[in-house]
Structures are given as structure tokens and as C-alpha cells.
Amino acid sequence: MVKEKQTKGAGEENKPVSAAKIDENELRKAKRDEGKSHEATKSAIDLEKKFGDNDSPQTSEISGGEAGENRISPADTRIGGIEGGATHSTLIILNGYGTKLIEMKGPGTNHWHVGMKETAARINGMIAIAKKDLNISESTPLDCTGLALSGCEQEESNRHLVEILLKEFPTASRRYFVGSDTLGSIKTGLRNGGVVLIAGTGSNALLVNPDGKTHGCGGWGHAMGDEGSAYWIAHRATKYVFDEMDNFSKAPHPITYVWPTIRNFFHIAERNDLLPHLYANFDKSKFAMLAKELAKGCDHGDPLCILLFEDTGKVLARYVQAVAGKAQNASCYKLDGIRDRMRND
Hints:
Elements: E1 2-6, E2 15-21, H1 24-36, H2 38-51, E3 79-84, E4 88-94, E5 100-107, H3 111-114, H4 116-133, E6 144-149, H5 155-168, E7 176-180, H6 181-189, E8 194-199, E9 203-208, E10 214-218, H7 230-245, H8 258-266, H9 275-278, H10 284-288, H11 290-299, H12 303-324, H13 335-344
Parallel strand pairs: 2-5, 3-6, 6-7
Antiparallel strand pairs: 1-2, 3-4, 4-5, 8-9, 9-10
């Protein structure tokens, strides 16, 4: 595991910051270990005695520390944050000074893709592995954890996720804040609202006005949209190939680069070999990764690949157009307005 030094906040010694990548097998092992641990069960009882009823899910602002002996110093505070999408997630743990203690990569945490319980298990697994790397007892929960995850746009489902985390994994974190990955991006970059456009495995845009009201476009998944996303690019390229070879409709440019790229990516010989990847063994994240190989075709000057990405840019621009009209002060979101506003913030 790679380790490096980073300067700490006031009154602290230098501590290692590690960068690592963990896979689903590691997360499952962490889950099994916690289930077998007597310490974890004892800790849950101790926490209940120390902090009282903590079953109500925290899906808004996290309250401050408790008075008296329960208040801990900034140096001993541990705050977690996970930014999660359909393909992968990133966990960061900070201390009370805002110093990053660890950053780790993990698998996707979109509950619409893997289920609510599996999402909770992956969150717990990432935290458990990070605590181990930081030499934090597995029975010691983080003080609070912010979750900015794709698929977490509904308050009710967000509360349900927190309920599962607190019940099934009481030693992961004492409290949680849950919101969408789009909301997390805006809060990171702008204090008074703005527009964020996400184009990863899926796609969506979100406008947050200064009064806190939000307006979104997209984010409905591959069955209903995801225009401009990596999945959309991969699917569109594959459809061009199938329609051309079926003599159903001619592709706008030759498929001489795209079809061999699809065959090489999926290790197939003919179109029938692709059917398991499209249906029985469908993995949206894996399918979307084909877009990365198609992007290389632009460097080679392939006209069909270039068209795919030109159309992607146009579609993503329409996302911004769709939400910009709902801005409280539309002039703020003109080209010059965005630039000036970012300077002011």
C-alpha cells in the first residue's frame, strides 16, 4: 500500500495518508469479519448507553457534538465522506482540523444498481478497511459520515439507507448525512447554488438556486435516458453496428473501426456472442467502459467515433439548457455570469 506524508493542522504531528483501491471481495470479507466480531456487538451496547437513542436517521445537517465529557478534540475527531457512483466510489476520512488522513477507492454504491443492503454493506466495508489502515479499533465508529451517492435523490430512501447502516453496522459511523452526488458536487464548488453536470456511467444535471430549491434533468437510468453518458455512447455505437449489419439502417459513417473495437473489448467473434453481455450477464458499468475504447478512435480520426462524441457534447449542452431556465436569476448562468460568480464565491 502506497503511503505519503501530508502536513497536519495546528497542534498535530504528521500522519500517513494512504491511497488504495479495494474491491468487492475485500468489502465482503470486512462484512464477515464484523459479523463475527464480539467487539462490534459490545460496542453497539456501549454506544447506546453513552449517546442514548441514536436510531433516528440523519439526512440533513449533522448536529454538533454533545456537551461535557462526550465532546472530543479536533485532533481526535474522525469525519468520513464518500462520493459514490454506479461504477466506483471514493472514501476520505478527515480529522477535526480538516486534514485528510486517508483516501481509498471502492466499488459502486448506487442502490438502484446493487440494492440498498448491498450499498450499506459496501459503505461499511470501505470504512472498516480504512479504519484498519489508520489503526482505529473496528469497534470505534467514525463521528459522522457524509454520503454523496448517485441514486440518493429521495428523502425516504435516504432515511432507509441510514436505518440499515445504524442497525446492521453500528460501528461504522455514529451519524450520517445522505444526499445525491450532484448535490455534493455543487456544495463543494459553490456556496450560493449553481449548476452541476454529471456524465459518467449515467448522466444528469442539477440546478440549485440561492434559496435552496433544486431543479433536475435526467438521472433516470439507461432504461429511460442517460443521454450523453458513457453507457449511452457505448449503446449507440453498438446499435449502429447491429443496424448496419442487419441492413436495417445504414450507419452515418463506416463501422470499420467501431465493430472491431466492440469485438476486442468483449472478446467476441460475432454479434450473437454479445447477447449475454446485453441480457443474461448485463453489467451497465462494464458496458459503459466501452466508451473509453471508442474515444481512442477519435485520436485515430475515425469519423463514426468523432460523430458519437460530437453528439454527446450537444446532448449534454441540452441538459444545462433545460435547468438554466429555472434559475432565479438567469443572467447569473450566462457564460460571463458563471465565470464572475465563481470568482466571487
